[in-house]
Amino acid sequence: MVKTNWTVIYNFIFLGFSHYPKVEVIISVLCLLMYLITLLGNIILISITILDSHLHKPMYFFLSNLSFLDIWYTSSALTPMLTNFVSGKNTISFSGCAAQMYFSLAMGSTECVLLSTMAYDWYVAICNPLRYPIIMNKRVCVQIAAGSWMTGCLTALVETVSVLQLSLCGNCTINHFTCEILAVLNLVCVDTSRVQLIMLVISVLLLPLPMLLICISYAFILSNILRISSVDGGSKAFSTCAAHLTVVVLFYGTALSMYLKPSAVDSQEIDKFMALVYVGLTPMLNPIIYSLRNKEVKAAVKKLLIRNSLCAFLTPSSK
Question: What's the predicted TM-score (pTM) here?
Answer without folding.
Answer: 0.87
